[in-house]
Specification:
Layout (H helix, E strand, L loop, with lengths): L2 H6 L9 E5 L4 E6 L12 H6 L12 E4 L2 E7 H11 L2 E5 L11 H11 L6 E7 L2 E6 L2 H10 L10
Antiparallel strand pairs: 1-2, 2-4, 3-4, 5-7, 6-7
Length: about 160
């Protein structure tokens, strides 16, 4: 390790692999295994995209280091709230032929709004490289869209 790397090292290592387990205090732990301590940018991906105006409803859990592993405790309440928030979401991929003009999120939303006949509001979030996350207001709307299956958008298939 170079001297300048040692100066930049922080107590928060870059994660490599994660495993989740339930410990005796009913808190969930995500553990990164044998990760070297490196300097990392402490901004989340969302913060880097949107800037500093992000407000969290509760503070993020503080990471701790146990031996050579990074531990982040997540309470079971926060874990189950996160699971509940994701129950009406799914991810899809838009596949285009070579040379087809890619859709903007706005154009894709307009096309899908004509195809999907859902009752409540829904939204989409581009995850990059043709992947999108779709969020629906209800389980029924999610089920309706899921049952419709593949959508031919001409050009492209979702």
């Amino acid at each position: 390790m170079f001297d300048w790397q040692a100066e930049l090292a922080t107590s928060v290592p870059a994660p490599v692999s994660f495993s989740a387990r339930l410990d005796s205090s009913l808190a969930f732990e995500m553990v990164a295994h044998k990760t070297p301590l490196l300097a990392v940018n402490l901004k989340s991906f969302t913060q880097a995209l949107r800037g500093p105006q992000i407000n969290y409803s509760e503070p993020l859990p503080a990471p701790s280091i146990r031996g050579e592993t990074l531990s982040i405790k997540i309470t079971s309440d926060a874990y189950f709230r996160g699971l509940e928030a994701c129950k009406t979401n799914f991810r899809g991929r838009l596949i285009l032929n070579k040379g087809d003009k890619p859709y903007s999120s706005k154009d894709l939303f307009a096309k899908l709004q004509k195809v999907w006949k859902v009752i409540g509001p829904w939204s989409l979030l581009s995850l990059g490289r043709g992947f999108y996350e779709f969020s629906f207001a209800s389980h029924e709307d999610l089920r309706t869209v899921w049952e419709a299956g593949t959508v031919n958008l001409k050009p492209g298939v979702l």
